[in-house]
Task: inverse folding
């Protein structure tokens, strides 16, 4: 008898408490619902509709997806461009920033200044970065000017040549993103366990052997993190090609996100844009899952 | 647990209600005697000018509660897209001739009776100007300004190179001669256009045809236009009187090359006449109407205006406001401030008076000449897609990796159905 009364009272208390808790979390919950859940659900729905921004919406089933893969002249090139960008950008960015972090790890003079210098492009607005690169790369720009006056060699019109344009987008992006990964690696290298390093040294590990068999495995969790984040951001690349090459010449540098942007906001075909966005989402999820799958083989968490 | 879920659902539902409530609130407001005007404004100057026009409209319609919304040019059309989708378009919305084809669904067709209610008459406006906001023969708005394309030149560069100065009534041969003569000392005679209007102006003038027909069918492969377009591309690829474009993201290439003093001539709209005359680089700018070919010198009449949104709750009041926004007083204001060349004929002289005395005669004669042979722009329904497709490909054409006729052909194949 007493226990039931006790239980009921506690139950009432818990209920009151959870009501209060709900009251406190409701602003956050409403925000989440409004700005995340609703748009996500809406975009799933949109992808199955012929959804012009104005006018009648029509359910079309998988037509948007079929149209993307069979009917749209720009979709495959966009997919290819995103793939090319990612394949070139991720290894370059990770390797270069790791090398940078390693070389700035030893106690050289002015390394703090150098770190700041390499980090500046990350905090500079992309528009400003691109403007500077454009001024260097265009035919009347710095590079061609130097090359013609020193060597008498006319350089290609980098941003207007289908092959060079993508290279330049990659190089500019690597330069821009280098500082961020460098910072992650620098932090990881500073935190390496002294005892392990010392033990390795006593065992006679030096130079490359030390780097390959001790330092890198110890830093592998950060390398894993950086490569996943870099891959995701490179699959979502938009600003660099949009500003540097405008996706051109032709569609030679138009990535998937620019394709989505054009479909949705220039051509007002929200259904097609939503379908393409979900394809991008699927690609990102699959690639990320694959990376998590193979991490057991090379990422070491034991310190 | 169940209760928690129910609570979450309740919160979400309340949020949704609040959201829809907001939307409903706006509509309810629109059904009273209030009229909302939506217009683009990119600077403090633009906003001040809009407010001056708003004041004129308020004075003319004391019984109405008129308010103004504005956004910068690019955002304006993005916002319009969402406003159209959510049924939130302002009763009076600004529109531009180049953008109309994508937004006709949001506007009500204006009938002669509507114009009468607004107190406007077709004869008040410059010939051809009511074509500006027409699509496939239907009138969607009345323009407040008119514009067409001109050739701007850098008089200092031409003089230095000893090249002949463009004159009214000049021919395409004259144009080529000037461009050739001015290409020296590391400067170019001409700068290629990347924008639709900027690159199409010379081919249209030379061929006397537009790349689309009046009924909205795409006509990019029309031999006359395609030939003229190929001639245009040859200015950079064969005649080398213009610099190859550096990137597809340089959408204002020709204009920046010209205003930076790297090219002696470029094509741009009358809307930039004043800013070119007062250019920052400090060169003496001049202007001429487009050159004349075998078929005259066909120009497009372009411009911006106001239309009435479809589903506007109090159309009659909106029409009255439209009438005062395009009435003599508001048009006189636009003209005398020198902001743009007004569509209303009686206000046009005030525009020339606003221009510096030393340029006035030239501007007046060139404008008069340029508006002699103009027609409204014909566009297809998917015109913005066509433009978006062609623009990055122009870079390949100007750099000699692709031919103009091939690009036009593939655009016609893709979008001409």
Result:
């Amino acid at each position: 008898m007493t226990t039931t009364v006790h239980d009921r009272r506690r139950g009432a208390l818990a209920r009151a408490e959870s009501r209060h808790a709900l009251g406190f979390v409701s602003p956050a919950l409403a925000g989440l619902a409004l700005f995340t859940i609703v748009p996500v659900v809406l975009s799933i729905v949109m992808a199955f509709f012929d959804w012009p921004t104005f006018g009648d919406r029509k359910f079309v089933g998988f037509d948007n997806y079929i149209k993307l893969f069979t009917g749209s002249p720009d979709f495959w090139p966009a997919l290819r461009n995103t793939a090319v960008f990612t394949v070139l950008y991720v290894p370059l960015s990770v390797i270069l920033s790791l090398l940078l972090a390693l070389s700035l790890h030893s106690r050289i003079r002015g390394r703090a200044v150098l770190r700041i210098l390499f980090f500046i492009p990350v905090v500079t607005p992309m528009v400003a970065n691109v403007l500077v690169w454009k001024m260097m790369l265009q035919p009347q720009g710095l590079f061609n000017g130097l090359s013609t006056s020193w060597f008498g060699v006319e350089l290609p019109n980098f941003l207007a040549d289908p092959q060079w344009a993508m290279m330049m987008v990659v190089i500019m992006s690597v330069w821009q993103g280098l500082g961020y990964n460098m910072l992650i690696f620098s932090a990881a290298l500073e935190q390496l366990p002294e005892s392990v390093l010392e033990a390795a040294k006593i065992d006679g590990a030096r130079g490359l052997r030390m780097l390959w068999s001790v330092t890198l495995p110890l830093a592998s969790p950060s390398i894993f993190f950086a490569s996943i984040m870099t891959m995701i951001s490179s699959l979502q690349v938009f600003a660099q090609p949009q500003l540097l090459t405008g996706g051109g010449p032709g569609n030679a540098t138009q990535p998937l996100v620019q394709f989505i942007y054009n479909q949705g906001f220039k051509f007002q075909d929200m259904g097609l844009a939503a379908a393409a966005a979900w394809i991008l989402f699927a690609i990102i999820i699959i690639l990320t899952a694959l990376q998590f799958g193979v991490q057991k083989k090379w990422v070491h968490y034991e310190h | 647990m169940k209760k928690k879920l129910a609570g979450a659902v309740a919160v979400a539902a309340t949020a949704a209600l609040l959201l829809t409530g907001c939307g409903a609130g706006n509509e309810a407001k629109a059904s009273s005697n209030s009229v909302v005007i939506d217009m683009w404004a990119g600077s403090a100057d633009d906003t001040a000018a809009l407010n001056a026009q708003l004041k004129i409209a308020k004075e003319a319609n004391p019984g109405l509660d008129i308010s103004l919304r504005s956004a910068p040019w690019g955002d304006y059309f993005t916002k319009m897209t969402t406003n159209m989708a959510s049924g939130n378009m302002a009763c009076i919305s600004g529109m531009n001739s180049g953008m109309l084809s994508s937004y006709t669904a949001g506007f009500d067709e204006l009938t002669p009776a509507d114009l009468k209610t607004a107190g406007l008459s077709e004869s008040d406006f410059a010939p051809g100007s009511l074509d500006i906001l027409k699509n496939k023969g239907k009138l969607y708005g009345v323009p407040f300004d008119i514009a067409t394309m001109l050739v701007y030149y850098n008089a200092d560069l031409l003089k230095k190179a000893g090249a002949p100065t463009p004159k009214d009534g000049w021919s395409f041969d004259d144009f080529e001669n000037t461009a050739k003569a001015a290409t020296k000392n590391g400067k170019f005679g001409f700068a290629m256009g990347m924008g639709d209007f900027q690159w199409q102006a010379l081919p249209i003038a030379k061929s006397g045809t537009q790349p689309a027909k009046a009924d909205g069918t795409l006509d990019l492969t029309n031999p006359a236009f395609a030939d003229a377009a190929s001639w245009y591309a040859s200015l950079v690829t064969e005649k080398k009187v213009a610099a190859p474009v550096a990137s597809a993201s340089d959408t204002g290439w020709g204009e920046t090359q010209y205003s930076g003093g790297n090219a002696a001539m470029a094509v741009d709209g009358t809307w930039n006449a004043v800013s070119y005359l007062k250019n920052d680089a400090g060169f003496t700018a001049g202007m001429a109407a487009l050159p004349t070919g075998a078929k005259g010198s066909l120009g497009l009449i372009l411009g911006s205006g106001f239309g009435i949104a479809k589903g506007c709750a109090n159309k009659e009041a909106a029409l009255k406001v439209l009438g005062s926004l395009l009435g003599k007083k508001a048009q006189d204001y636009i003209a005398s401030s020198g902001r743009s060349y007004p569509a209303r004929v009686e206000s046009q002289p005030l525009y020339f008076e606003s221009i510096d005395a030393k340029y006035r005669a030239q501007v007046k004669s060139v404008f008069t000449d340029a508006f002699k042979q103009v027609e409204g722009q014909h566009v297809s329904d998917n015109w913005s897609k066509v433009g978006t497709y062609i623009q990055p490909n122009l870079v390949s054409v100007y750099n000699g990796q692709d031919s103009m006729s091939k690009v036009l052909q593939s655009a016609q194949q893709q979008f001409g159905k």
Remarks:
- Chain A has two domains: 2-46, 63-298.
- Chain A touches chain B at residues 15, 18-19, 22, 26, 29-30, 33-34, 37-38, 53-55, 73, 134, 137-141, 157, 159-162, 165, 242-251, 254, 262, 265-268 (CB under 8 Å).
- Residues 2-46 of chain A form one domain.
